[in-house]
Amino acid sequence: MAIAQIYVNLPVTDLEASTKVYLAMGGTVNPDFSGDTSVQVAFADTILVQLMTRETFATFTKRSTSDGPIEVINALAAGSREEVDRLADAALAAGATEPREAQDMGWLYNRAVDDPDGHCWELLAYDPSAL
Length: 131
Fold this sequence. Notes:
By secondary structure, the protein is an alpha/beta fold. It has a single domain (about 5-60, about 75-130), classed as 2,3-Dihydroxybiphenyl 1,2-Dioxygenase, domain 1 (Roll). About 20% of the residues lie in helices and about 35% in strands. The chain is built from 3 helices and 8 strands; from the N terminus they run βαβββαβαβββ. The chain has helices at about 15-25, 55-60, 80-95, and strands at about 5-10, 30, 40-45, 45-55, 75, 105, 110-115, 120-125. The chain has a 4-stranded mixed sheet with strand order 1-4-3-2. A hairpin with a 5-residue loop joins β7 (about 110-115) and β8. α1 runs antiparallel to α3 (about 80-95). The chain is globular. It comes from Amycolatopsis coloradensis.
């Protein structure tokens, strides 16, 4: 059996503010899996981010959701450098922050944005033939 979808579940402090950032990065809300304490944002049929209030998220784990060291950097591939810049700029305008400068390695270009809770997302475009 092959993996069919990826779901990234994230605890957030302000559901509305976080949703705004993810929509700015190109996602759309799936109303079937959204409500007062959780919003599902789809980036594709197979890439879904479930934003949950910290209280709702805590019902799925016994581990603490307190701030701590970063444990994961998520990445979304875009079609071009211009699309990376457009999505990153839109996320920043929606309330994200940029934790570092853009990286241009010739074959790969990326920018990182942190959502309001510090969840890091790299937006990238690459040309494997130029590697």
